[in-house]
């Protein structure tokens, strides 16, 4: 078939759009959920995702984890000492995924009995005092699940660097920290007093982890590195990086004081990293302006080169973007702005506020992590290049929205909602910002959110209620529309006898939403529209309205209706 020039251009545009859509299906670190069919959940899903009686009676206070990986056999041996407060329970659920095996459990001077049940181990107590503080040490070994396509398909990573030398790490968001160490693998319970990670490796390798390096012990042919986090940390964020690392650093100064920034990269990438990581200070300045102080001044900020694309590992952000701008060199928005900065530096660091400091109890509410963090990309673009640039970037990422299933997932079964939580979540927040129509107030809401939920676990409902209360507007049905349905509201409008009428369609039956409509004078007007009810707008305008006259900062569709 021979195409005309116009047809060829149309075909090329269509192919590029389809290619972009395909790429966006693998959008960022958790969006490999391509199957929209309803999943059949198992008892194992419930054990992992719910707070049953064997979990709720005890609260994690601290993890002290020791691990020794064997690169040749792809196995690990380890011990996790858990400090916890108890309220009289007799059975403790410890999560550890097969094929790893628990060898023994020590409580005081006693060996406790335990029973494996798939990816769960039930530990039996006798005589735990109510409201007491206790320590339990769990010894384990085995070959952890190996990551096939990290970070999306997670597990332990055994690979080689460009020089053929051993390089190891872990990526386990969603899959869970229990893929490599025994813990209470549920987002609602973080170790209140922090954690330590002690790693024994051959003396030719360097081990890096979260927080600060507390000690290094040389044992001849091997070395032991002990890292410590002083703040609560989500269990999947606690990870090792093992390889031929070298470091450099700088100090970021702000009103909160001096923040140490340390960068760990493979020895042959230092010069490239020194240039690329110049983006860190501007990122910190922009995010502190919008969100408030970096949450982990005590533990410092680290970027660590990783054998995968990236992950928000608290105070040790995983970086694998090849020291280039964009998302592996691509602008996911198609606006041109996404290639002005390094996607992994900006996005994964944004998680230090949303996901790491503010954490949802259930991963069904993960949009709080990913929607806000995705929106941090827009705020950074705006901060660096102006408001129009931010809006163009934000509108550009809409092409990645699939509306395949709701953003909020099913609760209690360790299941996320749609990958739309990223771009659709960001567009929901920008829609709310646009309706508020007061950037100073919107910034105060974001700052207050990070003060009120600072280093806490929470729920989507609590965040939604907070935003409504501080904005002075009830956004509850707007949240329901965008988070809990797959329908994108359509603003239908018609002109009859020179008068504009408009309504909402394709949405919840009781939705009311302010919509900005253009007028003949060109300045526009906010009108509260409701579902299926035509609203007469007291203004006169021409019979035809240019498409670009509508407010594209609202995530809605527009449709003209013939009177």
Class per helix and strand makeup? alpha+beta
Strand content: 25-35%
Write down the CATH class of the largest domain.
Answer: Mainly Beta
| Total count of helical runs of at least 4 residues | 12
Oligomeric state as shown: single chain
What is the share of helical residues?
10-25%
Please describe the topology of this protein.
Elements: H1 5-24, H2 43-49, H3 53-56, E1 58-70, E2 75-87, E3 91-95, E4 101-107, E5 110-111, E6 114-117, E7 120-124, E8 130-142, E9 155-160, E10 166-171, E11 195-202, E12 206-208, E13 212-218, E14 222-229, E15 241-243, E16 245-254, E17 257-266, H4 270-276, H5 280-291, E18 301-305, E19 310-311, E20 317-319, H6 343-350, E21 358-360, H7 367-385, H8 387-396, H9 423-436, H10 439-452, E22 456-458, H11 460-471, H12 476-484, E23 490-496, E24 499-505, E25 512-517, E26 525-530, E27 535-540, E28 557-560
Parallel strand pairs: 1-11, 17-18, 18-20, 21-22, 23-28
Antiparallel strand pairs: 1-2, 2-8, 3-7, 4-5, 4-8, 6-7, 9-10, 10-15, 11-14, 12-15, 13-14, 16-17, 19-20, 23-24, 24-27, 25-26
Helix pairs in contact: 5-6, 5-7, 6-7, 7-8, 7-9, 10-11
Notes on the structure:
- With 563 residues, this protein is of the alpha+beta class.
- The protein has 3 domains: 5-30 and 326-484, Neutral Protease, domain 2 (Orthogonal Bundle); 52-243, Sandwich (Immunoglobulin-like), CATH 2.60.40.1730; 490-560, no CATH class.
- It has 12 helices and 28 strands.
- It has helices spanning 5-24, 43-49, 53-56, 270-276, 280-291, 343-350, 367-385, 387-396, 423-436, 439-452, 460-471, 476-484; strands spanning 58-70, 75-87, 91-95, 101-107, 110-111, 114-117, 120-124, 130-142, 155-160, 166-171, 195-202, 206-208, 212-218, 222-229, 241-243, 245-254, 257-266, 301-305, 310-311, 317-319, 358-360, 456-458, 490-496, 499-505, 512-517, 525-530, 535-540, 557-560.
- The strands form 7 sheets. It has an 8-stranded mixed sheet with strand order 5-4-8-2-1-11-14-13.
- The longest helix has 20 residues, at 5-24.
- The two termini are 41 Å apart.
């Amino acid at each position: 078939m021979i195409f005309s020039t116009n047809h060829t251009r149309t075909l090329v545009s269509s192919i590029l759009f389809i290619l972009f859509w395909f790429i966006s299906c693998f959008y960022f670190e958790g969006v490999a959920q391509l199957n929209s069919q309803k999943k059949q959940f198992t008892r194992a899903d419930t054990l992992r995702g719910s707070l049953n009686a064997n979990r709720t009676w005890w609260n994690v206070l601290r993890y002290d984890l020791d691990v020794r990986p064997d690169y040749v056999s792809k196995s690990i041996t380890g011990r996790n000492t858990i400090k916890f407060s108890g309220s009289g329970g007799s059975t403790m659920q410890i999560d550890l995924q097969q094929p790893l095996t628990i060898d023994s459990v020590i409580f005081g001077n006693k060996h406790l009995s335990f029973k494996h049940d798939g990816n769960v181990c039930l530990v039996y107590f006798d005589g735990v005092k109510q409201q007491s503080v206790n320590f339990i040490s769990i010894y384990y070994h085995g070959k952890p699940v190996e990551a096939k396509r990290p970070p999306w398909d997670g597990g332990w990573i055994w690979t080689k660097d460009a020089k053929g030398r051993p390089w190891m790490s872990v990526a386990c968001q969603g899959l869970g920290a229990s893929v490599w160490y025994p813990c209470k693998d549920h987002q609602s319970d973080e170790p209140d007093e922090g954690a330590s990670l002690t790693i024994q490796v051959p003396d030719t390798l360097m081990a890096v982890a979260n927080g600060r390096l507390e000690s290094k012990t040389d044992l001849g042919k091997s070395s032991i590195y002990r890292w410590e986090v002083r703040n609560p940390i989500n269990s999947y964020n606690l990870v090792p990086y093992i390889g031929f690392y070298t470091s450099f650093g700088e100090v970021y100064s702000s009103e909160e004081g001096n923040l140490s920034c340390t960068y760990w990269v493979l020895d042959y990438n230092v010069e490239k990293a020194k240039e690329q990581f110049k983006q860190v200070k501007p990122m910190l300045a922009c995010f502190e302006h919008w969100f408030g102080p970096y949450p982990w001044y005590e533990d410092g900020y680290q970027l660590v080169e990783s054998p995968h694309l990236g992950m928000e590992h608290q105070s040790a952000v995983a970086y694998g973007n090849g020291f280039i701008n964009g998302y592996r060199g691509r602008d996911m928005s198609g606006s041109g702005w996404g290639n002005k900065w390094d996607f992994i530096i900006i996005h994964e660091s944004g998680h230090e506020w949303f996901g790491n400091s503010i954490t949802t109890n259930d991963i069904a509410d993960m949009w709080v992590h990913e929607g806000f963090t995705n929106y941090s990309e827009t705020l950074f673009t705006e901060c660096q290049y102006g408001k129009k640039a931010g809006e163009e970037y934000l509108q550009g990422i809409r092409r990645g929205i699939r509306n395949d299933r709701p953003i909020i997932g099913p609760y209690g079964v360790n299941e996320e909602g749609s990958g739309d939580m990223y771009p659709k979540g960001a567009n929901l927040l920008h829609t709310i910002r646009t309706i508020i129509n007061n950037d100073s107030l919107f910034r105060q809401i974001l700052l207050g959110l990070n003060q009120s939920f600072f280093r806490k676990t929470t729920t989507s409902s609590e965040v939604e209620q907070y935003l409504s209360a501080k904005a002075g507007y009830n956004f509850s049905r707007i949240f329901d529309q965008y988070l809990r349905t797959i329908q994108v509201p359509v603003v239908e409008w018609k002109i009859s006898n020179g008068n504009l009428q408009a309504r909402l369609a394709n949405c919840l039956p009781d939705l009311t939403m302010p919509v900005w409509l253009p007028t003949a004078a060109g300045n526009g007007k906010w009108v509260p529209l409701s579902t299926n009810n035509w609203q007469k707008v007291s203004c006169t305008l021409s019979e035809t309205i240019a498409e670009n006259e509508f407010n594209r900062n609202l995530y809605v569709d527009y449709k003209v209706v013939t009177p």
